[in-house]
Structure formats: structure tokens, C-alpha cells
Amino acid sequence: MKPKKILKELEKLIEENEIDIVHGTGSFIGGYCLLNNLPVVVINKRIPVEEKATVLVKVINSKKIDYSKSKKAVKEFIDRFN
Length: 82
Prior knowledge:
single chain, alpha+beta
């Protein structure tokens, strides 16, 4: 599966768990935060796709989001960080 497709699947998984994703620019990579008491993942839209996916995987692992029903390629990508 191509990196962009994996990224889309990871974004879908995050959003299914009621966490918003915000893409912005600046001198940051990204991460999880609370904005007005709402969970948000902020991602720098100028970083490479693989780094964006890594940010999302870190959130999935830190929030213990169940990814067992994800596609095989997505599960394998997430498992690389465990």
C-alpha cells in the first residue's frame, strides 16, 4: 500500500475515535493536544507523508486506539512503532 493511502487510513482511524486533525504550517512537526478541551492532532502540512503518518501512529499508540480491524498494511505500519 502506498504511503499516501496508509496516511488516509490512519487519518480515518483517528477521526473515527472523535479526534480532529488540523493541518497547518510553521516550525513544528505535529502531535496531540487539547484545544478548548477537545482532542486535536496538529500536523505540519509541509512535512513528508511518512512523517505525517508517524505523528498519527504516535497518537494511536499513546491513546491506545484499537486498530485491529484496520487493513493489513496499516496494521503492519503501526506495529513497526510498537
